[in-house]
Each structure stands twice: as C-alpha cells, then as structure tokens.
Write a structure and sequence with these properties.
By secondary structure, the chain is α/β, with parallel strands linked by helices.
Amino acid sequence: MSPSTDTVIAEPYQFISGTAPLLISIPHAGTHLTPEVASGLSDAALPLSDTDWHIPQLYDFARSLGASILVGQYSRFVIDLNRPSDDKPLYTTATTGLYPDTLFDGRDTFKPGMTPTDAQRQLYLDQIWQPYHQKIHAELTRLKQEFGYALLFDAHSIASVIPRLFDGQLPDLNLGTHSGASCSPALSEILERTCQQQTRFSHVLNGRFKGGYITRAYGQPDRDIHAVQLELAQVNYMEEIEPFAFAPDKAAALQELLKQLLEGMVRWGEDRYKQGAV
C-alpha cells in the first residue's frame, strides 16, 4: 500500500550553521501537523500541550556562541524525533512512543478510528524522521572533521507536574548523559558544577530523564562525540496552561544559566582537545 497522495511533507526542519563545535538539537518544538493527524486529534490533544514550547526562542542566544541549531518542524504527534525508528522502548517507566497514541497524562492522542494509517506513518518516518537524523549525523561529521571532536546538546522541556510520568514536581534542570555513557565524565562534572554554583534552580543528573534516543544514539565519547540532554521544567520560562505564553522575565534568569552551561561545554572541549586528549 502506498502512502496517501494527499499528504505533502513540508521542510522537516530548520537549520542554522554555526562556527563552534557545538550542535543544539531541538526535536520537540515543532507544531506542524499533517492533514490526517490534524483531523484525527482528540479534543485533549488539540492544544498540542506536549510540545516543547518556545525552546528555539529560549536558546536563541546560542547563535552568538557559534552553535549550530537544528529545529524539528513537525509536532511529536506526527512522529517523535527522539525515539528509535523501530519504536523500541527507551524506559521501563511510563513514556510515549515513536507515534504517540497517548498524551503524557495518559489520555488518547487520537479520536477513535482516526489514527494515521501504517502507510502514512511510514511516510512520516521516511520524510520527517530520517531527514532530521541524517542532518544530525552530517553536522556532527562536519564538526568532527573540522575540530577533531563534536558536542551535541539535545534541548527539551516539559510541564513541571505530570503524575503519570514522575512523582511530585520535576527538578528545574534535568541533565541526562545516558547514565554516563554519552559524554566524558569530566564534561558532565563541569555541567553539574555549574548548576551547583547557583541556588535559584534545582537540578539533577541522570534522574527521571537520562537522555532519549538522540543522546544515546549519537553520544560516542570514545569517538570524541559528546552528547548531553537537558530537560527543563517549563514553569521557569513560560505559563504551563493554554495558551502556553512565553514569560520573558522568568526566562531571562534561566537563559543566564543556560548560557553558562553551553559556554562551559564549549570551553571544556577547547581545553581538552587543545591539549591533544583523545
């Protein structure tokens, strides 16, 4: 069976090339929908509440650091760019899959009988998921060739209270390194120390969010490619209820810390590889 000819996939991502050995991946900020997803969404899903709202705006300062920035354009309700293409579960706890059929809170994503067909979902895999990951691979390859190493920062956010996914209120900053497998221990130590040197925002390393597929697939410290995921509690930079408005005053303080984290990451890379470490 061929995918629906009514489905036309627009540009699956936006990309800004930088000058530093750092790629920021933002897979879940997209809000584009295919016609079949748009018509099939349940009333609960229509606000697109599981979106990583305003993350490109929050990290806009990173362009001044020379970072390359890759932003997915399609909603995770079409296809989740941070899940493996075979949809193998990443967590033993509650989560959502490559094609989310439930929201984070457990309600149905689609109206009964209105989920996209297998053929349509194959199209999403071929024309949305694959191009995004091909771009990550290509950019990390370019950075590695140019600098001898590459840094990947996978940027996410989520509502601060979701009982189905975690108990209580989520820490403000949730750093994930696949339990230490996706980057050098020295890099994670620097990032954690940066968080410890301030008191406004709480943080945890490899807590509930240890890193999704992107962190796990591309973080290869033995090949000088270091990947870190950061899951932010949205309460610190936006309103967590519809219409999910950006809160500039709150965001400014968080951006200051985010800048320190990214600067520390870049500085660590420069110091490490300037000395010829491998």
